[in-house]
Amino acid sequence: MPELPEVETIKNELAPSVVGHSLTGVAIFDEKLVAVGSLEEVHRELIGRKIESLKRRGKYLIFELSSGRSLIMHLRMTGSLLLNPREVDRYARAVFDISGEHRVVFSDRRRLGRIWLVNDADTTVGKLGPEPFDEGYSAEILGQSLSRHRIPVKSVLLDQHIVAGIGNMYADEALFAAGIHPSRRAHSLSRKEVRTLHNCIRAVLEAAINCKGASVDTYVRPEGELGTAHCDFKVAHRRGQPCPACGATIQWIKIQNRGSCFCPKCQSLSSRHTAKGSQRASHSLHNVT
DNA sequence: CTTGGGACCTGGCTGC
DNA sequence: TGCAGCCAGGTCCCAA
Q1: Which of A199, A213, A251, A255 is the most exposed place for a label (fewest CB within 10 A)?
Q2: Is the residue at A134 inside a domain?
Q3: What is the pTM of this model?
Q4: Are residues A120 and A20 in the same domain?
């Protein structure tokens, strides 16, 4: 699934072939792909426009156009952007031809991805929380966000309004690295745990970017290569396998309808900290200011 | 305001 | 072998 490291990789690897080039052809095969704007409008507005820049915000890709408008893409679960593929396969939902003999194919097995044509990209991505690598995203900010919620800490990490770009697998990895059980009530984390988690979020995402993302499902890089971040996963997608740190069997539970993998030994949980736990959990609230 | 649950989607897997 | 039913999860929407 494309999360921040995957979308960052796609952006980095696509940019040299598209930025500064013009759209010469647009074919959209699936009208559900277009979330805002009609097929005709998208077609009319894109043809002949130059792509001035390609940016990432959270899990969104933003193509800034010479018209001043932006084409925003979200790949959701199974979307990929393929650069000059040998063939346009059955999962292709749109094809963008670009000057300089380049072609970008939006391929999406489960058809959950969306594109938006907007005047101002901020109307779509402005609601997102801070980028994990922004200077403004400090341990203090994370601590304040966590202290406002009684839901499991993992659910807070997945909330894109609180911090942008973390998805299910990197939430599992960051919590393992920090030694924090995913079911811990968000507000129950100590100041020290918040600092550790903050460091681990950045470390896990940075390592994954360096590996060009994780090819656990349908994710491939624009030119078809796989990412290798999943080779270093300690718990994510490793249900039933031994923990690389202690050898305990990695457990799988559902947290707010999300499958969650964790090590029961490295990420221990005392009952007073669970989302279902006792009232005493409120006494462990720590304000990080 | 926060929280929880369902809808959207379809390929792949499980079990009968 | 065939097929029904479930599962994966990012985001939006609605109800409590």
Answers
A1: A199
A2: no
A3: 0.92
A4: yes
